[in-house]
Amino acid sequence: MHPELHEHGPDEVPHTHPDPGVDPHTPLHPGPRALRIGIGGPVGSGKTALVAALCRALGAELRLAVVTNDIYTTEDADFLLRNGVLPADRIRAVETGCCPHTAIRDDISANLDAVEDLEATLGPLDLVLVESGGDNLTATFSKGLIDQQIFVVDVAGGDKVPRKGGPGVTTADLLVINKTDLAPLVGADLSVMDRDARARRGELPTVFLSLVGDKAATPVADWIRALVAARVPAA
Amino acid sequence: MSLATLLVLADGRLPSGGHAHSGGLEAAVAAGRVREVRDVGGFLRGRLQTTGFVSAAFAASACARTGAFMDLDRGLDARTPSPALRRASRAQGRALVRAGRAMWALPDVGREPHHPVALGVLAAAAGLGPLEAAVAAAHGAVSGPASAAVRLLGLDPYAVHSLLAGLAPEIDRIAADAAARADDPVDALPAAGAPLLDIGAELHATWEVRLFAS
Amino acid sequence: MRAGARIVAEADGRGGTRLAVLRGESPLLLRRTGPRTGGDVTVHLVGGAAGPLRGDDLRLDLEAGPGARLTVRSVAAQLALPGRPGAPASRLEIRAVVAAGATVRWLPEPLIAAAGCDHRAVTRVEVEAGGAVLWRDDLVCGRHDEPSGDVHTDLIIRYAGSTLHRHELAVGPRAPGWSGAAVLGGARAVGSLVLAGPDLPEAALLGGDAALMTLAGPGMLATAVGQDIRQVRAALDPLCVERQRLPAPA
């Protein structure tokens, strides 16, 4: 048996598998592949609006694509299409069989297929955003699927959310506390959220965001820009 | 043959994309044909005798003759008139090969083989035989939709699992039949069809909103 | 009862088709029907006895030479009946060979699986590249208000040397789950129509439980499931008519 000689479909980036026991989660091609960032968080926290803002902010400077995992297959993808932030061929929707957290954590195969298909059809990409379906505070991405993950909570969910913790809040590479414009309306104390987030997250960064005031999601976009720059050595 | 290896291969938690496929159950629920546990039982029995038997035979055959995977793949194409079901089978085959490569040293099986072919080739690479490949295929043909039924209809999971326990002897019998035919010419392998699974898959593929990929 | 029948159709060299062989025996009696003009020859199975019954072993051979156009129909439904207890299953085997440029249309009345029957239908169709077939099989599971008997259909259609469509269907008490929601869902009638060759229509949903699907090879399958045969006919008959009007393949 010669795994290194096996054939691939014509639409796949040429590659080899030098070791039959190779971890299939590692990039299939040896060159630089897209940075994969997972965006998770509870229902209604503003994940899709954040993805749309990031596409608008980064679409001109980075080659990017989006994979959505809405429980209702195409809902989030349709939102992105309707808002005209990304052409249809740069968005893939993955069905999750009622279990969005399974598709991003326990069985990531459909998401990996989607990411690979995007890279195969669009050519090299700088960034793939993988948006989870709205789930709960325990839903996190598998490291086999993404490089870094963003967890989005919103102030309307109550200022106790960071204190409650959960793997998303505690371990995400970036915590986004969203909809800060609503804080006065729902009686949420941002300083409490900030303090609790620091206590939970140690050195991991947290940013406050209001897409009402900042349509380009600047702090998040800047965080992603730094990651992309760190990966791709300047020519 | 390692029984524990068979359990690893047949485990519903194997990360090979199965959780997103309902095996036609979502379409049957939408059509009003499956509402309660009893209906799930009828669905699973029919699926086991048709798709399950064909999958078991092709998994057994691919395990017995991994080098013939392309002929077997075409054989499944000829047995799968629904383009939506061909896509679903290949998507699951691709996902299974991805998982399999991480676990065992796989021979060439193509990039996106039909799921039963991938299963047979994985079984062979794992040191299992055609009968074990057939058991895994037949079991998977009903355990996936059973799990989807619990998720879609909120049915009592104990009641649904008791259906699976009741089908187990039949799964064994079908797997034995399938394995006994593993060396037959491809045209002579089982081809038991299920018209409503074909038609339902084509309808399902046109929905704008669906929870399962198939 | 053992019986055989054979039809050989050939192009007559003047744009028409002639029957080089038309030979049948009861219950497979054959009659040439329809007009003598036009490029197409129609043959009807006229039937010679009730059946098939358990123990019957029937065989029909069809052959269409290059450029020939043959349509085979039946005047009445085939009623599979129980027959003598203990006798082997009744069996009807059909073999068809279709040459390049030839068209065979198999458009019989339905097979009815009467309660207690045990029948096996085996069909093997071999189409050369450039040939065309329209192959229809309808099945009704039991007469009015009776349970279905056992019927097993087994179809292979090969095109240009490769298997295009391979399908088996089992209904009746010996086929577990056949009336469950995955197979026929309690419906009493099912029909299938395979179209192979050039000039294929677009895939389509046909309304109700029926779809016209694109096969992996050069062909299509229309399948319809219905509470009765009328629903199946409503879905599939228009496809047969439409196909009839298509020009002969070049």
TrEMBL record, chain A:
Entries under CDD domains matching the protein: UreG
Biased composition (Basic and acidic residues): 1-22
Cleaved signal peptide residues: none
Tagged with keyword Ribosomal protein: no
Alphabetical GO biological process terms: urea catabolic process
Entry annotated with the keyword Chaperone: yes
Subcellular location: Cytoplasm
Binding-site residues for GTP, renumbered to this chain: G41, P42, V43, G44, S45, G46, K47, T48
Molecular function as annotated in GO: GTP binding; GTPase activity; nickel cation binding
Span of domain CobW/HypB/UreG nucleotide-binding: 37-206
Region (Disordered): 1-34
Listed GO CC annotations: cytoplasm
Major location category of this protein: cytoplasm
Keyword line: Chaperone, Cytoplasm, GTP-binding, Nickel insertion, Nucleotide-binding
Record-linked SUPFAM superfamilies: P-loop containing nucleoside triphosphate hydrolases
NCBIfam families from the UniProt entry: ureG
Function noted in UniProt: Facilitates the functional incorporation of the urease nickel metallocenter. This process requires GTP hydrolysis, probably effectuated by UreG.
Self-association and partners: Homodimer. UreD, UreF and UreG form a complex that acts as a GTP-hydrolysis-dependent molecular chaperone, activating the urease apoprotein by helping to assemble the nickel containing metallocenter of UreC. The UreE protein probably delivers the nickel.
Stated family: Belongs to the SIMIBI class G3E GTPase family. UreG subfamily.
Protein name: Urease accessory protein UreG
Organism per entry: Actinoplanes auranticolor
Classification lineage: Bacteria, Bacillati, Actinomycetota, Actinomycetes, Micromonosporales
Record gene name: ureG
TrEMBL record, chain B:
Subcellular location: Cytoplasm
Subunit: UreD, UreF and UreG form a complex that acts as a GTP-hydrolysis-dependent molecular chaperone, activating the urease apoprotein by helping to assemble the nickel containing metallocenter of UreC. The UreE protein probably delivers the nickel.
Major location category of this protein: cytoplasm
Species per Swiss-Prot/TrEMBL record: Actinoplanes auranticolor
Record-stated family: Belongs to the UreF family.
InterPro entries recorded: UreF (IPR002639), UreF_sf (IPR038277)
Key words, A-Z: Chaperone, Cytoplasm, Nickel insertion
Gene name of this polypeptide: ureF
Function: Required for maturation of urease via the functional incorporation of the urease nickel metallocenter.
Pfam families named among the record's database cross-references: UreF
Name this polypeptide is given: Urease accessory protein UreF
Family annotation (Gene3D superfamilies): Urease accessory protein UreF (1.10.4190.10)
Domain of life: Bacteria
Single GO term (MF): nickel cation binding
Cellular component, GO annotation: cytoplasm
From TrEMBL, chain C:
Keywords annotated in UniProt: Chaperone, Cytoplasm, Nickel insertion
GO cellular component: cytoplasm
Major localization listed first in the record, in broad terms: cytoplasm
Cross-referenced InterPro entries: UreD (IPR002669)
GO molecular function, one term: nickel cation binding
Compartments reported by the entry: Cytoplasm
Source domain of life: Bacteria
Pfam families given in the database record: UreD (PF01774)
Biological role stated in the UniProt entry: Required for maturation of urease via the functional incorporation of the urease nickel metallocenter.
Subunit structure: UreD, UreF and UreG form a complex that acts as a GTP-hydrolysis-dependent molecular chaperone, activating the urease apoprotein by helping to assemble the nickel containing metallocenter of UreC. The UreE protein probably delivers the nickel.
Family in the record: Belongs to the UreD family.
Protein name: Urease accessory protein UreD
Organism: Actinoplanes auranticolor
